[in-house]
Design brief:
- By secondary structure, this protein is an alpha+beta fold.
- It folds into two domains: about 90 residues, Hsp33 domain; about 40 residues.
- The protein is about 50% helix and about 25% strand.
- The chain has a three-stranded antiparallel beta sheet with strand order 3-4-5. A two-stranded antiparallel sheet has the order 1-2.
- Helix 1 packs across helix 2.
- It is globular.
Amino acid sequence: MTRAPDTPDFLLPFQFDELGVRGRLVRLDTVADTVIHTHDYPPAVGEILAQSLALSAILAGALKFDGVFTLQTKGDGPISTIVADTTSKGEMRGYASFDAERLGELAAGAAGAALADRRARRGARRARALPGRNEKVDRLAAATIPGKGDG
């Protein structure tokens, strides 16, 4: 078995002949950090850009070409453009265009949903901890969910 190189950034092809499986393992430590921190992207943007850089490296590594392989996405969401370039020499660069206000709204919505989820789980734990409360919940469920018993 071949070990991954002891470098912070690598692309390692692999193949399992007996399973008919082949692929590439990529690790972008220094490259991703440099691209993301040079532009001081927010964490959500940096994460998506890092994933795009990894995908660009994998796809470029699977092709025989001379020059630059460019992975580009465009949309109308908070992150409108992502560009990840990989050269045939292994050099990489990336860029993201985003609307900070819309990204903040999205993050606030996600944080609110996470808080509501935590509160719901906490409430469920409390319901399990209180004697007699589960009986009422079970009777309600049995009465409202067809086929769940006779209540």
